[in-house]
Amino acid sequence: MSALGTGERDFRHVPLSPLTVLTAKARAVRRSQPLDLIRLTPLMKKTSGRAETVVALIDGPVACTHPDLRESNIRAIAEHGTPCSHSTDESSAHGTFVAGILAGRRGSEAPAICPGCTLLVRPIFGDASSRTGMLSASVEELAAAIVESVEEGAQLINVSASLVARSSGQRRDLEQALNLARRRNAIVIAAAGNRSMSGGTALISHPWVIPAVGYDPTGRPSQFSNFGKSIGRRGLGAPGEAVRSLAPPANTAISGGTSVAAPFITGTIALLLSEFQRASAADVLTALTNGTARRRSVVPPLLDAWAAYEFLRTSGAW
Question: pLDDT, tens digit, for every residue of 192-210?
């Protein structure tokens, strides 16, 4: 069976020691570093997002009772029950970490980009896959999760995982799901993968997907990121090293990888859609590239959130 796996060999969870005491100023500086790298801080000062902007998180279950997620607007797709988990296994750790980047409480240790938006959680990584040492799900499960997210009204779909497919039939299922997302204007952001490889998967190569690669704190592409023609042509870079977010049950953690970079891009788009409510998906995608011509590099540029905001603000259509 083909599998969808995070490929996050460098995904580390380091709980904050109870002996670590930081001043409010020190916490704010540490939290702002990845946000400032992509000039996201001024956009976050303008808005925390709108509940009408629905962001689908296709990942692991989330520790909804975490003190910094308790007030977040988190819901599940009806037929899949609660999106919440009380477990501390790897699947919950991964889902909670990404959820903290998107929907954590403002002022917490997490980036907390768009807590005002609705987070639609569709778990695809379960406890069983955690025991194998790799978070995984079938390609059919991923395709179904994308379709269900679109049908639930998601405008953005964050897939913090890389894909390995072994059959043309499975690729067709995924392609059809992504084509549906495109017809419904639901933007898909997916991690490019962490194997220092060149090339793309069926997920990353689809023309409607924005591949996410990691950048280090100095603004250079992370060596572990995958690159390639489709990644360079349509992708974006975002903080992918030494990022702190939330960990179950009530901790914080430091991690890295392209699955960490993806929600920075997703959260930025969520804020842009919240701020420019008449903007279409195509408008926002154009703003993210500043209307530049086709790229030729296999390495995508670093996201510039404020430039995208200014592009939309001065376009005269809003």
Answer: 988 887 776 788 889 999 9
Nearest to 95, CA basis, from 116, 71, 64, 73:
64
Q: Per-residue confidence at 315, pLDDT binned at 50, 70, 90? A: confident
Nearest to 248 by CA among 98, 97, 141: 97
Structure tokens at 155: 């405008």
Instruction: Tell me the pLDDT tens digit for each residue of 73-111.
Output: 999 886 776 778 888 888 899 999 999 999 999 999 999
Instruction: Provide the pLDDT for residue 132.
Output: 38
Instruction: Provide the 3-class DSSP secondary structure of residue 285.
Output: helix
Smallest CA-to-CA distance from 200 within 162, 181, 228 is with: 228
Helix (H) or strand (E) holding 35: helix 24-37
| Mean pLDDT score, 223-242 | 93
Query: Is 11 within 8 Å of 255 (Cβ atoms)?
Result: yes
| Six-digit token string for 48 | 């925390």
We find that the CATH architecture of domain 3-313 is: 3-Layer(aba) Sandwich (3.40)
The Cα 165–Cα 158 span in angstroms is: 19
Alpha carbon of residue 76 to chain centroid: 17
Rg of the chain in Å (alpha carbons): 18
Contacts of residue 61, defined as CB under 8 A and 6 or more positions apart, other chains included, come to 83, 84, 85, 87, 91, 92, 95, 121, 123, 125
The domain locations on the chain are: 3-313
* Nearest to 141, CA basis, from 197, 203, 84: 203
- Distance, in Å, from the CA atom of 233 to the CA atom of 205, rounded to the nearest integer, reads 10
DSSP 8-state assignment for residue 198: B
**Whether 30 contacts 254, CB under 8 Å:** no
Q: Measured between alpha carbons, how far is 244 from 255 in angstroms, rounded to an integer? A: 6
pTM of the model: 0.88
